[in-house]
Write a structure and sequence with these properties.
Elements: E1 8-11, E2 14-18, H1 28-32, E3 37-39, E4 45-47, H2 56-65, E5 71-74, E6 80-82
The chain binds iron/sulfur cluster (SF4).
The site of iron/sulfur cluster (SF4) has 14 residues, from α1.
Pfam families: Fer4_13 (PF13370)
InterPro entries: 3Fe4S_ferredoxin, 4Fe4S_Fe-S-bd, ET_Ferredoxin
Protein name: Ferredoxin
Length: about 80
Amino acid sequence: MSVNPSGSRKIRNWTLTVDRDLCIGAASCIAVAPKAYALDNEAKAIFLDTADNETDEVLLDSAKACPTAAIIIHDEKGKQIYP
Ligand code: SF4
């Protein structure tokens, strides 16, 4: 397994990153965007291959739902959109 299996995922124009150090496994992101994330065996969020089936709006909402702001979103120019 790689060092950071949560890592980053490019979804359309955005790049989403789960910071494993910040993720506490609260699973709020999964409740909002169940096609985008799952918890791995360390209770950290990882991206699912079906993540691009979630709309941008839902993905943004999933980042906003994270209690520790562990989901970071950048646009195609590298500008941070959230948090
Ligand atoms: S909501 Fe945040 S803390 Fe909870 S599993 Fe998702 S990324 Fe981790």
